[in-house]
Amino acid sequence: MNAHDDAMLELASLHGLGVLPPEEAEPLDAHLQACDQCRAAFMESAAIAAGLGRTLAAGAPPALRSRVLSAIQAQRGVSDAGAVTTEVTTLRRSRPTPWARWSLSGGVIAALTVAIVVALSSQHARAPQPQPTALAQARIYKSWTAACSPKPCASGGTVVAFVSGAIRLNLTGLRALPKHKVYQAWVIRPNALHPIPEPTFTADAGGNGSVVFAAKIGKGTVVAITVEPLGGSKAPTTKPFLTASLD
Amino acid sequence: MQHAARPALPARASSAVGPQPLPGRRQAVRDKAPEKHRAKRPAMTDAGGDLARLRSRDPAAFAELYDAYACLVFGLAKRILGDEAQAEDVTQSIFVRLWTNPELFRGGNFAGWIARVARNAAIDVRRSAAVRLRAPDLPLQLAAPIAIDDEVIERMQGAAVTDALAALPDEQRTPIEIAYFEGLSYRQVAERLGEPVGTIKSRIRAGLRRMAQGLGSVQAR
Question: What is the pTM of this model?
Answer without folding.
Answer: 0.55
